[in-house]
Design brief:
single chain; 709 residues; alpha+beta; Glutaredoxin; five-stranded mixed β-sheet; four-stranded mixed β-sheet; 26 helices
Length: 709
């Protein structure tokens, strides 16, 4: 683990800068730097133009380890601050608050350097045109990496003496950015699913699971695609790649075996040594993947993992109002991972003698430690809990039944967790983001269905209600961030798309039409303000938002699916649920707009492929007509909710007294009534309807008729 270098200038000795009035935990971390920081605001760029200075833009987030390092090394250092304050106007941005700004300049960094990451460092003209990009820079130059004390004077000298070259370069970069988002229109073809699967087969790590060497990221949307591809084709290899990866992650050190939840990524190929920060979006996406894997396989270990993720989020990442916090840091007491690792003697002291050998074998605990420091390569002397040996083998070795071994390991885990709670906790980023909350609502809704857990549905409803009241303007449009009773910042396509997806899932979970109505209302705003009327697809920013350097359309999946991928799925689902063919035509235009880009690298657009998989069909619409609380209605709905049916949309048409709202949203449900008072399923497949049935098993046969064995 890495110790953060000590500051040469105590931040408490400095007066607050302009960031002191911000709400972002990341910006507030820099509020006592000697750097004369501005937040991203008009005044900073006006001053840069007035004083003829370049803008030094630094983008990061509060739980970013190397952002902490760069702050301690450079931004708290008086010599670095003096150079920045004399020759630059310095702007600090929280990439989680302003993903629109981050997305533009991260693309610049990738264009200029071939890679990206945070902290992101951009130097640009007062009119926001970039001419230099990089990520982390040390204070002093070392190992071929230029340091801030050398970089800043060089840039300042170029600005004074080579201005024409800088302006020419910044203009070329800006023009290249503007040309980037002009893909050719192309009609989607189903063979792209096979092409993506072939790519993933080549990338798959047969020994360890996952789709890279090191570092390894838990790209849940790839697993969602593989589950759908296996369901569509009957290809066992697709299911194997998904389940092998899910198994390796839940057994690896990337999973927090003491307190649950997943860390950001693994630094090694075996999922053993994590980068220890925890992000809400990872919990949401992985919860969704494990839940769907349970539906597809019936493997109880996937249900257990999904429920543990939710336990972590509801325990540690939920605000008093019911919305979800953003992240927990990797660092505590200036050291990455200190909160999570264990010395051998510390574990032994907590256990009864009878349990010591059992727990050490269960979690691979060793006297010398079980991992090497990723920076020094030396044995760390501490242990990361992980599972190397199958439970049945551990039980057999200790002459225990599976149930006995599991119970004793769980008791010991709870004991370790109780001890760990007394440690200094990592920093929690407690801002509430609409997009990440939308992902978590989606995951909770799916888990509520799959596991028949009403408490999960209630948690999802509470979060959705918070977003729809506290992060919504009087005109119905969304805001992006809430913290300390302040809702602010422009919402982007991810905010809308992810929340709409969550609301659709909530409708199918609770059958309350208000969630479907809210989804349709937000979707109409998305179409009005984000839709590209000329080429199709959705811009990242609204047409009534801030005028940035470029207005991007993004479709490439990163740590989470792109807003366009989720918006495409939303259009398809809402079209089928409401009978609105206009939404389906819009979905077709969006798919055509991006397909040429998707086909160039199919596996990098996994969630877009999930939406295409839905569009290629066969897809099904099911209307259940019945009395809400009747046993036969509950049984019919339970079959739909617990089975893996990725191509099915569900509507509920209650008895006459309470059917008015759903009939207003989906007029075709007027004709659907319970036959002889019994719960009845009306199934339509690819635009034609099948005979209604009152038998849940007969309904399931219809819905799985095209599934390959």
């Amino acid at each position: 683990m890495t110790n953060i270098p000590q500051s040469q200038s105590s931040p408490s000795a400095n007066r607050p800068n302009r960031l002191a009035g911000e709400k972002s935990p990341y910006l507030l971390q820099h509020a006592h730097n000697p750097v004369d920081w501005y937040p991203w605001e008009k005044e900073a760029f006006e001053r840069a133009a007035r004083e003829d200075k370049p803008v030094f833009l630094s983008i990061g987030y509060s739980t970013c380890h190397w952002c902490h390092v760069m702050e301690k090394e450079s931004f708290e250092n008086d010599d670095v601050a003096a150079l920045m304050n004399r020759s630059f106007i310095s702007v600090k941005v929280d990439r989680e608050e302003r993903p629109d700004v981050d997305g533009i300049y991260m693309t610049v960094c990738q264009m200029l350097t071939g890679s990206g990451g945070w902290p992101l460092t951009i130097i640009m003209t007062p009119d926001k045109k970039p001419f230099f990009a990089g990520t982390y820079f040390p204070r002093e130059s070392r190992f071929g990496r230029i340091g801030m004390l050398d970089l800043l004077p060089r840039v300042q000298k170029m600005w004074e003496h080579d201005r024409e070259k800088i302006l020419k370069l910044s203009g070329e970069i800006t023009e290249q950015l503007r040309q980037e988002d002009e893909p050719q229109q192309s009609e989607p073809v189903a063979s792209v699913l096979d092409e993506a699967f072939a790519q993933l087969t080549q990338l798959f790590d047969k020994d360890n699971g996952g789709f890279s060497s090191a570092p390894k990221f838990p790209t849940a949307h790839i697993l969602l695609f593989l589950l759908r591809y296996g369901n569509r084709t009957g290809n066992r290899d697709a299911l194997h790649m998904a389940t092998r990866t899910l198994d390796a992650m839940k057994d690896g050190g990337i999973y927090d075996h003491a307190g649950f939840g997943f860390h950001r990524y693994a630094t090694d190929a075996r999922w053993h040594v994590p980068h220890f920060e925890k992000m809400l979006y990872d919990q949401a996406m992985l919860c969704l993947a494990y839940t769907e894997a349970f539906q597809a396989t019936g493997d109880q270990s996937y249900r257990k993992t999904a429920e543990e993720i939710i336990a972590y989020v509801l325990r540690d990442m939920t605000s008093p109002e019911g919305a979800f916090f953003s992240a927990e840091d990797a660092d505590s007491e200036g050291e990455e991972g200190k909160f999570y690792v264990w010395a051998y003697d510390e574990i032994i002291r907590t256990l009864d003698r009878d349990d010591q050998e059992l727990i050490c074998s269960a979690f691979d605990i060793r006297k010398q430690g079980n991992f090497a420091d990723p920076v020094s390569g030396e044995q760390a002397g501490t242990n990361i809990l992980h599972r190397q040996t199958p439970l049945h083998a551990i039980a057999a070795a200790h002459r225990l039944s599976l149930q006995q071994a599991e119970a004793r390991i769980e008791e010991a885990r709870a004991g370790l967790f109780a001890i760990r709670k007394k440690r200094t906790h990592p920093h929690k980023d407690d801002k509430i983001l609409a997009d990440w909350n939308g992902l978590m609502i989606t995951a909770l809704a799916k888990a509520a269905q799959a596991f028949q857990r009403q408490d999960y549905a209630a948690a999802a409803v509470r979060a959705a209600d918070f977003l729809l009241t506290r992060l919504r303007k009087p005109d119905g449009s969304l805001l992006h961030r809430y913290r300390q009773n302040d809702a602010s910042l422009p919402a982007h396509i991810d905010d809308y798309a992810f929340l709409i997806s969550g609301l659709i899932g909530l409708y199918e979970t609770t059958l309350d039409p208000q969630h479907l109505r809210a989804a349709l209302s937000l979707n109409s705003i998305v179409i009005r303000h984000f839709w590209d009327k000329d080429s199709g697809g959705f811009y990242f920013t609204a047409d009534n938002g801030e005028d940035l350097l470029v207005r991007k359309k993004e479709v490439y999946d990163s740590a989470i699916p792109s807003g366009n991928s989720v918006a495409l799925m939303n259009l398809l689902r809402l079209a089928r649920m409401t009978g609105n063919t206009g939404l389906e035509e819009m979905a077709a235009r969006s798919a055509r707009s991006f397909f040429s880009s998707v086909r160039q690298a199919p596996s990098a657009h996994a969630y877009f492929l999930c939406a295409l998989d839905y569009s290629f069909g066969p897809s099904y619409e099911v209307v259940i007509a019945g009395i809400p609380e009747a046993a036969d209605t509950r049984k019919m709905l339970q079959v739909l909710q617990t089975t893996f049916l990725p191509h099915v949309s569900v509507l509920f048409r209650p008895h006459e007294d309470s059917a008015a709202e759903i009939m207003q949203i989906a007029k075709f449900t007027r004709q659907h009534t319970a036959i002889k008072g019994r719960a009845t399923a009306y199934v339509c497949r690819d635009y034609h309807c099948l005979p209604p049935t009152t038998d849940p098993e007969a309904m399931l046969v219809m819905l799985q008729a095209d599934r390959k064995p």
